[in-house]
């Protein structure tokens, strides 16, 4: 009997008192906090640990004259909510969240009074705001991305190319009130102005913006123009052809030509599109590029199943090796260059190392290079192909040029070479090129498309006689390089001035550059091409020093 009575008293002590035991005079918001929505074992211990202090604190709360506080739908969620009007007030626990431990301490009653006064001030001092209004987030100050303005101002052409390739800026973006091209041309502090202009044009800068007063405003606007019209616009002299040096004038005029835009459309949507930038590294040879782009366009449309084999022939110093070297770098594909003058047999061809100083150093032979890039786009340059000691060394090219596969060693499997681009350079037919050029009615005028096609037909028999008909029949196209025009010679000489005076180029005005160019032109040798102009410019600069 004694045990039954003891067990009954223990159970009765742990059971919560009914809700009506809470005094009726307690405020409604305190009453809500003391009545849990869902009783649980944790709530049983929370309300019975200190019943006397709880009632004492509740009576204290009923005496406070505070503004009515709207209750949250659930007393549990109200712990994590904060009214938007209190964003500038210190974050205090709300009265409805007082724990039993805090209620048991008498010194916490002063905090309740302070909190009540804080709530009263915030409600009366600030205008009501909707709880649906989102507060503006606070962000850290991030480092700005490099812009085209900073890249041009750095006077580093590689920075300009990096910004344009990344897509962070476009070549036709405005740099302040000017277009990027106009800003570069009018900046007298740039030592590499010519290179930056070429980079902008290569990535699609529109030269017509130089004629737009909104994109190329004058530095000084006269109150009355020449016709007496107020606020007339005059194009800055540096952006006019007359105010440019011969090289810059040539590239800007070339980019603005309708023929340039038409030629670029041939490979605009193909893998070979980056090759359109080569016209800002290679001076002249517009018809060579047009025929090359046509061949690449046919191949990209799968109208031809044979590998691409292009033979670049013509006089020395006219850009054949430069075009072959730029081919792989512009397409961002690996390149292997073979010096054909060192070959003695077929075995020497496949075991030859790359000899170009512009390529990444590699210890791979041509056979290893083709195996490493099997089924992938790559370029093989056969430099001075006609100067091989034994023409029989070229017989091993018959099968890969026709079928796109061959065995690099006896008894080994065939290697897939269908995506290899073969480029051969040669001086074959250079006499034919000069004879045809001089036989035209007016040799000083640029050659036309029909005349260039006639020259292509005349050059092919000479190549066949030198390399053999069996090898030539597997060549996709033969592209003869033609002599330079006067404007092209001047552009070559002007670029030679900039390359030889890299650190003091900005001290030379366009007029100074053109004066050096005109003195170097009489020393031009057609059979040597650009090399003779570089030598003549170098001699002029030495005399000036």
Low-confidence residue ranges = 1-126, 129-133, 139-144, 221-231
Output the radius of gyration: 42 Å
Shape summary: globular
- Which fold name fills CATH's third level, the topology of the largest domain? Rossmann fold
Q: Say how many strands there are.
A: 9
How much beta, percentage-wise?
A: 5-15%
How many alpha or pi helices?
23
CATH superfamily of the largest domain: P-loop containing nucleotide triphosphate hydrolases
Largest sheet: 5 strands, parallel
**Helix fraction?**
40-55%
Termini separation (Å)?
A: 126 Å
Strand order of the largest sheet: 4-5-8-3-9
Count up the domains.
Answer: 4
Give me the CATH architecture of the largest domain, please.
3-Layer(aba) Sandwich
Average pLDDT confidence is: 77
Structural class: alpha/beta
CATH C-level class of the largest domain is Alpha Beta
């Amino acid at each position: 009997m004694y045990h039954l009575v003891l067990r009954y008293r223990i159970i009765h002590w742990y059971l919560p008192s009914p809700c009506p035991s809470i005094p009726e005079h307690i405020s409604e918001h305190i009453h809500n906090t003391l009545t849990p929505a869902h009783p649980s074992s944790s709530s049983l211990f929370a309300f019975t640990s200190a019943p006397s202090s709880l009632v004492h604190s509740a009576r204290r709360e009923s005496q406070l004259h505070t503004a009515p506080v709207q209750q949250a739908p659930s007393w549990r969620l109200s712990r994590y909510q904060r009214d938007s009007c209190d964003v500038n007030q210190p974050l205090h626990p709300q009265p409805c969240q007082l724990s039993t431990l805090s209620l048991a301490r008498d010194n916490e009653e002063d905090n309740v009074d302070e909190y009540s006064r804080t709530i009263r001030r915030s409600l009366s001092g600030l205008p009501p705001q909707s709880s649906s209004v989102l507060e503006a987030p606070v962000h850290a100050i991030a480092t700005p991305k490099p812009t085209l303005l900073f890249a041009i101002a750095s006077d580093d052409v590689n920075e300009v190319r990096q910004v344009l390739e990344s897509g962070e800026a476009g070549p036709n973006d405005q740099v302040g009130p000017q277009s990027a091209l106009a800003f570069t041309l009018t900046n007298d502090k740039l030592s590499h102005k010519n290179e930056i202009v070429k980079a902008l044009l290569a990535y699609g800068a529109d030269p017509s913006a130089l004629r737009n007063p909104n994109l190329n405003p004058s530095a000084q606007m006269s109150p009355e123009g020449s016709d007496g019209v107020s606020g007339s616009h005059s194009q800055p002299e540096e952006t006019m052809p007359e105010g440019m040096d011969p090289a810059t004038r040539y590239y800007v005029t070339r980019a603005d030509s309708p023929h340039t835009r038409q030629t670029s459309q041939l490979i605009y949507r193909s893998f070979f599109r980056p090759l359109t930038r080569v016209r800002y590294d290679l001076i002249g040879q517009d018809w060579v590029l047009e025929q090359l782009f046509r061949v690449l366009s046919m191949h990209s449309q799968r109208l031809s199943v044979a590998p691409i084999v292009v033979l670049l022939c013509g006089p020395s110093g006219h850009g054949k090796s430069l075009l072959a070297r730029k081919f792989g770098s512009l397409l961002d594909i690996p390149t292997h260059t073979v010096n054909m003058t060192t070959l003695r047999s077929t075995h020497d061809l496949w075991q030859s190392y790359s000899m170009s100083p512009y390529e990444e150093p590699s210890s791979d032979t041509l056979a290893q290079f083709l195996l490493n890039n099997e089924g992938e786009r790559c370029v093989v340059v056969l430099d001075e192909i006609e100067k091989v000691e034994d023409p029989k060394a070229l017989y091993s090219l018959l099968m890969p040029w026709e079928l796109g596969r061959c065995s690099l060693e006896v008894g080994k499997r065939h290697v897939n070479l269908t995506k290899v681009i073969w480029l051969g350079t040669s001086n074959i037919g250079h006499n034919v090129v000069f004879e045809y050029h001089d036989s035209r009615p007016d040799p000083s005028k640029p050659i036309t498309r029909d005349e260039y096609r006639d020259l292509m037909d005349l050059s092919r028999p000479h190549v066949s006689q030198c390399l053999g008909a069996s090898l030539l029949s597997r060549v996709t196209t033969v592209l003869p390089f033609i002599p330079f025009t006067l404007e092209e010679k001047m552009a070559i000489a002007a670029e030679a001035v900039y390359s030889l005076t890299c650190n003091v180029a900005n001290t030379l005005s366009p007029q100074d550059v053109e004066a050096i160019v005109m003195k170097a032109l009489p020393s031009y040798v057609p059979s040597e091409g650009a090399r003779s102009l570089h030598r003549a410019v170098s001699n002029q600069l030495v005399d000036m020093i």
